[in-house]
Amino acid sequence: MMDILVVGSVALDTVTTPFGKAKEVLGGSATHFSAAASFFAKVKLVGVVGKDFAEEHLAFLQSRAIDLGGLRQVSGRTFRWKGEYGYDLNEAKTLETQLNVFAAFDPTLPDGYQGSGIVFLANIDPDLQQKVLSQVRTPRLVAADTMNYWIAGKHEALLTVLKKVQVVIINDAEARQLAREPNLVKAARQILSWGPRCLIIKRGEYGALMFSDGGWFAAPAYPLEAVFDPTGAGDSFAGGLLGYLAATGDFSETNFRRAIIMGSVMASFNVEDFSLNRLKTLTRQEIEARYREFQRLVHFDALS
To answer: 236, 297, 195, 230: which is closest to 39 by C-alpha?
Structure first.
């Protein structure tokens, strides 16, 4: 089993959906990723929070055996995000962003973090992603996320990052914007030509697509009757995916396909409640049972 290093945001979110509202609850890309990945592997989290970050949030992360040696708590207020969803839960409307202490985030890896086997660069400034990469020693796998803000504002810096990673995990709108190509298949080919060996496109309630030298793979989303809050679903997907790869140590095409399903499993649980509430009660038995349900969902026989 390999350790996973994640660098990204730890935040307090205020979220409104058609099914309720949650105020200043635990969020952030690194948080959702770490909570999901911790079911499979040891996670080392690098981020920053303010002095107002509640002890109960730290206690939850520690209860998941997440290494917080890289989480700095400094004077000031924690990063905050406020958003709302309509009945189209695939897209959030950002109402307010307060970077606060995250504005001066300068990721410096503690001793013992540089040798992590898997590295996940969450959707932070590409310059910071490069700084992290300059501090790690020969990881077996590096995966990166990004967002429309960085694609538009730091396109060249982002392309430099892509040359140094093996896996890119982004949504369909980001893939089109990054490649400047409306067709997803053509966009995928363009992104892979820049260096990554695997592109995984998150498509919300429509599932996920993987493009690689080994071919293409499509996975559905799990059909749910109750979806309360999709915030962090993409990072939970990445956490389940990379957590499974870290646990197995197998980076074959076949195992990547299993990992994508495991990522979809974790994302499906994440959206069943606000914040990380569902992951707080989740068990490994529930995870394995839903994985088996995914198998039944996508199985079909060959033509006779």
So the answer is: 236
CA–CA distance, 101 with 118 (Å, rounded to integer): 26
CB distance 298 to 226 below 8 Å: no
**What is the residue extent of each domain of the chain?**
4-298
Strands (E), 18-123: 20-27, 43-50, 67-74, 80-85, 92-98, 118-121
Whole-structure pTM value: 0.96
| Tokens, residue 173 | 């709108």
Laid out side by side, the sheet with 20-27 consists of 20-27, 11-17, 80-85, 92-98
Query: Which helix (H) or strand (E) is 167 found in, with range?
Result: strand 167-171
Can you tell me the distance from the alpha carbon of 162 to that of 142, in angstroms, rounded to the nearest whole number? 10
Neighbours of 64 (CB within 10 A): 16
Are the CB atoms for 143 and 121 separated by under 8 Å?
Answer: yes
Query: Domain 4-298 class?
Result: alpha beta
Compute the distance between CA of residue 53 and CA of residue 58 in angstroms, rounded to an integer: 8
CA separation for the pair 95, 82 (Å, rounded):
5
Distances from the Cα of 156 to the Cα of 104, 128, 214, 293, angstroms = 22, 14, 27, 42
Q: For residue 26, what are the β-bridge partners?
A: 12
Tens of pLDDT along the chain (304 residues)?
Answer: 899 999 999 999 999 999 899 999 999 999 999 999 999 999 999 999 999 999 999 999 999 999 999 999 999 999 999 999 988 787 888 999 999 999 999 999 999 999 999 999 999 999 999 999 999 999 999 999 999 999 999 999 999 999 999 999 999 999 999 999 999 999 999 999 999 999 999 998 899 999 998 889 999 999 988 889 999 999 999 999 999 999 999 999 999 999 999 999 999 999 999 999 999 999 999 999 999 999 999 888 999 8
C-beta of residue 69 within 8 angstroms of C-beta of residue 116: no
Cα separation, 80 vs 83, whole angstroms: 10
